[in-house]
Amino acid sequence: MQKKTIALALASLASGATFAQSNVTIYGVADAAYVYSSGDRANNTGHAKYSGIDSGKLSGSRIGFKGEEDLGTGLKAVFVLEFGMAVDENTALESTRQSFVGLNSDKLGQIALGRQYAPGFNASIRADAFSAATAASSLSFLQTAASNTIIGTSSARINNSVTYRSPNLGGFVVSAIYGFGETTVDTVADSLFGAGLNYTNGPLNIDAVYHTRRASTKTIAGRVSTHDDINERFLGASYDFKIVKLFASYQDQKDSNGTSTNHASNRIWGVGATVPVLTNGKVHVAYTDLSWDRPGAGDSGAWSLGYTHAMSKRTTLYTTFSQVSNDSNAPVAAGFSATRAVGEKNNTFTAGIRHTF
User: Fold this and answer.
1) How do beta strands 47-55 and 24-40 pair?
2) How far apart are CA 145 and CA 122, in angstroms?
3) Concatenated DSSP letters of 96-122
4) What are the φ/ψ torsions at residue 14 (nearest 5 degrees)?
5) For the chain, where are the E strands, in sequence order?
6) Is the Cβ–Cβ distance between 238 and 245 less than 8 Å?
7) Cβ(159)–Cβ(301) under 8 Å?
8) Which of 27-31, 205-209, 229-233, 293-297 has the lowest mean pLDDT?
9) Which H/E stretch holds residue 124?
10) Which of 87, 274, 312, 328 lies in the 20 to 30 Å Cα band around 29?
11) What is the Cα–Cα distance from 72 to 334, expressed in whole angstroms?
12) Which of 78, 141, 112 has its CA nearest to residue 290?
């Protein structure tokens, strides 16, 4: 009798564990590529080269856990815990990409707390032919140089934040975020507010985004912080004609900290396209330009060309080539971090594989 009771108890525990995890999903990306980048050093002082195997060049390598619990009457508890990884070296989890817990209502939308994407994150990805690939996207290269938070990379992941996302209302989705600085010295950690409107209707996608934050002591393109607000606006769109998908975006950043000769206001515009080829292939092409709103400041321009080939629904081979040109009077150098320099060009080639699970 005692053995039967113990067996029933163990079976009950096993059943309970299965039920508790039935709505939890483990997912991730394993992405690695060979990268070769070269460029002249500033003032003709030599030539910079980089060669190696890097992680996450098409999509950031990661492992994540997400789940939900049905609370009844259309309400769910939801969570995401997602961590970046380096698949090319002996390191532990690199960073928290996103992590939040919240409530989702079928009728009212979702509210969540944690480290989360600002509206500019996904809007930038949707308007980019390279989906913000870190070593291939001309748009991402120049957004990084401009120190934008409307970008499809880590700068748009906001700590200590509360977010809201509406249900889909006839193709429209509204999103908002507020990130708390959580410090008694407001020059150390910035607060951020962002709002976005996304419209999707078949092949058409349109995003409009606004971010505003308080300038910190961080130096951006040589400007001196006076702790005034930095305001960003973004408009992006794509349209899929089946034989070609077109992308376009425009954004500006109003950062009037410092003086008129060193403030960091700037504008970025970009265009791109993807073209299906063969059975499972796709050609990607894009051009982007960055200009600064200060006297005598030079521009940076970038173009990218790439090819992706889907071996299956989860495995993709890719190769890309990007070139970034920085004027001699550009406030900052844009491009691959190891080879970029003001007044010079830098070229970056990648060839890799991405597997999702």
Assistant:
1) antiparallel
2) 19
3) EEEEEEEEEETTTEEEEEEEEE-HHHH
4) -65, -45
5) 24-40, 47-55, 62-72, 75-84, 95-105, 109-117, 157-165, 172-179, 192-201, 204-214, 229-240, 245-254, 266-277, 281-292, 300-310, 315-326, 345-356
6) yes
7) no
8) 293-297
9) helix 119-126
10) 274
11) 50
12) 141
Q: How far apart are CA 144 and CA 322, in angstroms?
A: 15
Task: Name, in order, each residue with C-beta under 8 angstroms of 151's C-beta and a sequence gap of 6 or more.
Answer: 120, 121, 124, 132, 140, 143, 144
* Percentage, residues of the chain above pLDDT 70: 90
pLDDT (0 to 100) of residue 16: 45
Residue tagged 């509360």 (tokens): 162
Closest CA to 126 of 246, 27, 244, 302: 246
- Residues 36 and 1: their CA atoms lie apart, in Å, by 70
The fold adopted by the segment(s) 23-356 is: Porin (2.40.160)
**Rounded CA separation 230/103 (Å):** 31
Give mean pLDDT, residues 75-85. 96
pLDDT band at 183 (very low <50, low <70, confident <90, very high): low
Closest of 82, 81, 68 to residue 110, by C-alpha? 68
Please state, for a pLDDT cut of 90, what percent of the chain lies above it. Answer: 78
- Rounded Cα distance between 29 and 357, Å, is 6
Give the other-Cβ count within 10 Å of 291's Cβ: 20
Residues 297, 262: Cα–Cα separation, whole Å: 9
Judge contact between 69 and 61, C-beta under 8 A: no
Whose tokens are 């973004």? That residue is: 234
* Radius of gyration for the alpha carbons in the chain, expressed in angstroms and rounded: 23
DSSP string covering 283-332: EEEEEEEEEESSTTPPPEEEEEEEEEEESSSSEEEEEEEEEEEE-TT-SS
Q: Which one, of 121, 152, 116, lies nearest residue 134 by Cα?
A: 152
- The domain segmentation of the chain, as residue ranges, is 23-356
Rounded-to-integer distance, Cα 276 and Cα 349, Å: 21
